[in-house]
Amino acid sequence: MPVKQAPPALIERLPAVRGDLEADAPMARYTWFKVGGPAEVLFQPDDADDLAQFLAAKPADVPVTIIGTASNIIIRDGGIAGVVVRIGRGFADIHIDADEITAGAGANDLHVARHARDAGLGGLEFLCGIPGALGGALRMNAGAYGREIADVLIDAEAVDGAGGVHRLKVSEFDFGYRHCGAPADWIFTRVRLKGSPADPDEISRRMDEIQAERETTQPIKTPTGGSTFTNPEGIKAWKLIEKAGCRGLRRGGAQVSNLHCNFLINTGGATAADLEGLGEDIRRRVFDDSGVKLEWEIRRIGHFGSEQGDSA
Questions:
Q1: Is residue 233 situated within a structural domain?
Q2: Which of 125, 148, 276, 297 is catalytic?
Q3: C-alpha distances in angstroms, 26 versus 29, 38, 80?
Q4: 164, 104: one domain
Q5: Same domain for 14 and 82?
Q6: Which of 87, 139, 213, 307 is the most exposed place for a label (fewest CB within 10 A)?
Q7: Which of these is catalytic: 227, 257, 276, 285?
Q8: 227 among known catalytic residues
């Protein structure tokens, strides 16, 4: 009887790229929570052309998952099948022309705010209060301190799942609260934002205020993932969580922050299952207490670990 040969590893089926391809890549090193199983293959493209060519040439049956700085994400302990595309250093450039800022989707929000300040452009100070990079902020219409991405966006470029390149004006995004209407498989590569002339000293003062408030009200020096749940209409999620008695609640190495109870933290040794399970505990307790069903703001992706079963 002929010996059946094992199918080739996924990385052997992928097209050549200029960026980096890595098989069985540990993803915990990239997430702010410091948890998560491996990516079957991790692809870090050199630039938008490298990304577009890869997507156009890859086998159609290979799933793709997009991450940026992974500041608002839980990658489950069983890891992620297919290719994880990480929008990183090849997309971190920032350029300013008059009152417009053009930046790669991998540019850190804080760095964008600082560049705007140095150029005397106001209106983007709020970005220093949003963890992560522009691509993720655009995908969820991130906001803080009274402003959101929709308020400052001019347009953006994206690559679709087949490698096609698109440019969308702000009016085409169908923005809502923590919502962007662009197709889910589109990967943002470049963003154009508008500022307004302002005194750099005044901009610095406002940014200092925002960062000081974050340091005193959020657990930013502990592995965390930002706001866990979106705010229900008319009320802050943290108030519901506190009312339900969840401040300081623990599950394994995961804990509800005592500083801000809409933040989960990894106290050391937490698993993704600990964090997600704690989040579901909070949702049940809040619903039992107030009848409100909290919705996750943090993305949870990948396969559960063996102790939870293998469902995605």
A1: yes
A2: 297
A3: 7, 4, 10
A4: yes
A5: yes
A6: 307
A7: 227
A8: yes
